[in-house]
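Model it.
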Amino acid sequence: MERRVILAIVLMIGIAVAPSLLWPPKPTVGRTGGQADSSASIVAAPGNTPESTTARPADRSTAPTAAVPAETVWVTSDQYRLGFSTRGGALVSAQLTSYKSFAPGDSAHAVQLVPDGRPLLAQRLAITGDTLTFADLTFTPSAPSVRVGTGPTTLTLAAERPGATVTLTYRFTPGDYAFSVAGQVTGLGPQGAVLVVGMGDGLRSVEADSNDDYRHYAVVTKASKTESKAFASLKPGETSVLDGPFEWAGLKTKYFLVAALAIGENQQPFGGAIATGGPRSGKMASRAALALTLPVPGSGEFRYDVYAGPLEYRRLAAIGHDLDDANPYGGIFRPIVKPVAELVVNILLWLHGRLHISYGWTLVLFGVLVRVLLWPLNQKAMESSMRMQAVAPLLKEVQTRHKNDPEKLQKETMRLYKEHQVNPFGGCLPMLIPMPVLVALFYVFANTIEFRGVPFLWLPDLSRADPYFIIPVLMGVSMFALSKIGQLGMPPNPQAKTMLYIMPAFMTFLFLRFSSGLNVYYAVSNLFSLPQQWLIAQRRLRKQGQRPPGS
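Modeled.
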């Protein structure tokens, strides 16, 4: 997909620059993840600091048959419904009730992040000469169910084994997708231990296009900087050891994130992580695991937070510690695109919130506003183009007179430009300025959850392609009209005539599978540019003493 974006950028820049070079005389680019225990985990020597923690794959284990059957303790709020198993205290269900699944056979249900039978937060404790697997323990909950109301709410799970007591306390806050995990293990001794936190063996895909969702499936981490590693780059069974210490680390799909956070005051960071690739297992499945290590002192106390929710830019930015970087605006263009994408997202959200209009009409308004802001620049481009045409005969004369003396030709050409106040690239700037916005919008519609599943007119989803291809065709026709009007009064040029037909057709084909929201913006931008382009063409013709078409 990024190669198509690169090609589109090169072609659009070509469209912007070529007219100023060609038209004047010629002086000269489903997942159904997680298992009860992670497919790979990190086992570290007790007492090691995060910097010295070593990692290796651990054998997959299954919980033994228990006399007491496992039960699920449900925690509900206005935003989610979480299920914690009394077998190991793991997260066996994470339904986000504010979002609907679009996966085939699962549509209209609430988004479910945890795959069937393979929970998240499967934990184990590596002690000298022993491993305490929480899945071997049956916990007693403080309540059979919990409702998160107007204040912080806690759920406590406690279990005992010979010589040790394990207590897990989950703390929930209203209006927040993050919750804290605090643990206490007795009987460790002064050497302490290392907690291995299984972040799952995959996340459930809830998108209509599971292949596209899989391409976004990655492990994201924050040490000194944020990094992302696509699971598609790992072969089944292949492991990748990631060196910490980490402030946070987790798994992301196209629109959702499950991450463990160690960002609290005096909170111990995660020592390291290991990602293990896995085979696809159906349209809604991907087997790929992530596990983290957390040093536990002799007191047996540990604490971290968990975020299980949408990749919502403002929400993640409010948490801080660059968690919003888990949303990968820009891909390989990230340093350039991300600031523009964030600006565009904030403008669109502000317009939507202030004007109380749908995101579709917000996008239309945004396209018009961009063109209104560029109107003065387009006028300057017109002036530059007409001055270029006026000086064209003199340039031709200079080229003929000094064709055998390149140095003299360049000197005389620059003298003419200066005398007649001509900037040979003056017409390019207004066409180049919208390009970063267009590229940013490509990533905005590919990664911004606010546009996920949002309908507009006949379009079922602004983040997906137009199923009837109406908008891409309209975009191509408007692009052709702009180019056609732009050639009125210009000197005949075979190359420009070729571009007139080929480029709109090619760009239409290229944009057919791009998000309909991106096509809406581009089409609106082109359509709103037509009146100004017409006025520019008429003024050019009057300047030349020709009769404008239709007059």
